[in-house]
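[DERIVE STRUCTURE TOKENS]
===
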Amino acid sequence: QYINFYYQIIFSISNKIGVYLKRLQMDMVSTNLQQAAEVSQLRGARVISAEDLLFLMRKDKKKLRRLLKYMFFRDYKSKIVKGIEEDDLIEDKFSSNNTNKRQKLAQDFLNSIDQTGELLAMFEDDEIDDVKQERMERAERQTRMMDSVQYAEFCESRQLSFSKKASKFRDWLDCSSMEIKPNAVAMEILAYLAYETVAQLVDLALLVKQDMTPKAGDPFSHAISATFIQYHNSTEVHVAFSHIYMMIMQGNVNKSVLLSYSI
């Protein structure tokens, strides 16, 4: 009876959770955009560019490395669309060719601010991204018990992207009201950050869920990273988001803490 009552509460606030998370995501991405605009103004630029966002992310090596890989694959995809052969892809990885514009742009900028060589080293770094790896394993575990219809829906959902509807995404961020507006590459990065925000909220939701589940005999269990949390179906994620929502409503989670997950 308790379980049934508990799930009734969860489903009753389902819509509120969706509305709140949508607003929270907009706040996080808008914060990123505003910070980038401030950096752009400081350097006297007329537009917000990729350099401004890269500058903001320079201290978080893991997030920056993940973004650089995304920029490389965006270039890679562009080359495939243009019909360039695979052999040329490897040879031109760091060339000045226009098809490598994102990668070269990032490399040139990071080279200009890199004092120690740490930032440029990321272009050659093949280290496994633990967070990304855990997310992939988590997604794989979800598919094990799916039938063909569920799997098809799952695959379709994973292809969703903010970058596919660039004009709507720009309107969503209300870029038209800004004095300094983001250029095309900056919008790609913002779309990536919006997508990444969803993943971070899932990580945070699972962390909150874990923190609310006491473990006998382990006084440090609450300190375990969200990176290593495992779950097996989407219901648990829904429950986790419900935990976040209820804690926020009770004043136990400050919105500024959630916004700290942005760059």
User: Anything to note?
Assistant: The beta strands are 47-48, 181-182. Residues 14-42 form the longest helix (29 residues). The chain has one domain: 2-259.
